[in-house]
Amino acid sequence: MPDGAAPVLDVKDLKTVFKTRAGEIHAVNSVSFDLRPGELLGVVGESGSGKSVTMMSLIGLLPTPPAEIRAGQVVFKDQNLLSIDETGLRDIRGKRIGFVFQDPMTSLNPVFNVGFQIGEPLRKHMGLSKSAARTRAVELLELVGIPDARRRLNDYPHQFSGGMRQRVMIAIALACDPEVLIADEPTTALDVTIQAQILDLVKELREKLGMAIIWITHDLGVIAGIADRVLVMYAGQVVEQAPVQELFANPQHPYTRSLLKTIPTVSGERAQRLQVIEGQPPILTASPTACPFLPRCAHHFDRCAAENPARRPVAPGHDAACFWDPTTGAPR
Ligand SMILES: Nc1ncnc2c1ncn2[C@@H]1O[C@H](COP(=O)(O)OP(=O)(O)O)[C@@H](O)[C@H]1O
Ligand SMILES: [Mg+2]
Q: What is the Cα–Cα distance from 223 to 229, expressed in whole angstroms?
């Protein structure tokens, strides 16, 4: 991953709100990040921190209304995805940017066999004939490690196990050889062994195909083994960003430090949760004017109530949105 290379995806100050009867929910608040060629970017944060809404905003998958993208720029190669029309987006989605979501049972269509579903983006985006699409579908099933691929083309989603269905979803996402793959908690519903197999598969595919990957999870432990760089999200913001080893060795934000303590340690047969983070994330009825983590933070100062800290550099390639300096225990 050359450091100076132009990013594949460059997101700046993205703001997404939901208009509800009870008022506005500010789900994504000035999120900025980039994705570099060939890198695996992990995105972590508790449920409700805005991970999915951020990614769905990027490629126009949110229903508007109730959602509204209020500000920002999403530059993919040389186009701002927020200013192109639905036809243009449809051309990019599923072709140049592939997706895998958490629950393949709701993303796969139960009434079509998987051969048809893998072939669909190939026919739609690449203009492949039915028979060429079938041939390519066999290759793709083999690529994602599904045994007896040719025969399994005729099977329906319910005839596959959870892990195998997720492999089918990955095959669909990779069908058109995308430049970016966005995987939103794709292994959350799977048991630990199958999850590990899927993670190995993704590592292998990245080496083979070289696309950039955004991997979303609520589990920092998953990220440790696969990511190059990590974004930590809290309350619709990126609160910390660093290369993976740096983040684990030198976490800055109190929220990241708490997340690290929730990674299960394996002792004998059983994984144990060491600690849970006390308290609840805020409900964002406006964009925060104080640090949104303040109510759950053990290290806050007066300033944290007066100002929402911006992200600023703490080490090379590492920034955090916090006024507390963990090295000195004093304000920065
Ligand atoms: N359809 C919706 N209507 C109102 N608020 C929503 C809707 N979808 C998501 N949200 C809000 O956006 C926040 C972020 O959600 P999401 O991105 O799904 O979180 P994550 O993927 O990190 O678990 C949620 O806490 C919720 O308040
Ligand atoms: Mg989500």
A: 9
Atom from ligand 1 closest to the CA of residue 49: 22
Q: Specify the pairing of strand 212-217 against strand 180-184.
A: parallel
Measured CA angle at 290 (ends 74, 25), to 5 deg: 55
Contact assessment for residue 168 and residue 100, using Cβ atoms and an 8 Å cutoff: no
Among candidate residues 234, 258, 231, the one with its CA nearest the CA of residue 326 = 258
Q: How far apart are CA 264 and CA 272, in angstroms?
A: 5
What does DSSP say about strands 212-217 and 229-234: parallel, antiparallel, or unpaired?
A: unpaired
Which ligand 1 atom is the nearest neighbour of the CA of 45?
22
Query: pTM (2 decimals)?
Result: 0.92
How far is CA 9 from each of CA 4, 66, 81, 91, 170, rounded to the nearest angstrom? 14, 26, 10, 16, 20
Letter for the amino acid at 312?
A: R
> In one letter, which amino acid is 165?
R
Residue 240 DSSP one-character state:
E
* Nearest-angstrom CA–CA distance, 201 and 163: 11
**Number of other CB atoms surrounding residue 91 within 10 Å:** 13
* Cβ atoms of 184 and 55 closer than 8 Å: yes
Task: Kindly list the protein residues that place their beta carbon closer than 5 angstroms to ligand 2, a single-atom ion.
Answer: 51-52
- Of the candidates 322, 236, 254, 241, the residue with the CA atom closest to the CA atom of residue 42: 241
| Ligand 1 nearest atom to the CA of residue 53, by list position | 17
CB-based contact 174:166 (threshold 8 Å): no
- Give 107's contacts (C-beta < 8 A, 6+ positions apart): 101, 169
- Please determine, for residue 269, whether its predicted confidence score (pLDDT) is greater than 60: no
50 alpha carbon – ligand 2 mean position (Å): 7
- The proportion of the chain whose per-residue pLDDT surpasses 70, expressed as a percent, equals 94
Q: What digits encode the pLDDT tens for the residues 112-137?
A: 999 999 999 899 889 999 999 999 99
Are the beta carbons of 190 and 169 closer than 8 angstroms? Answer: no
Asked if 248 contacts 221 with a C-beta cutoff of 8 angstroms, the reply is no
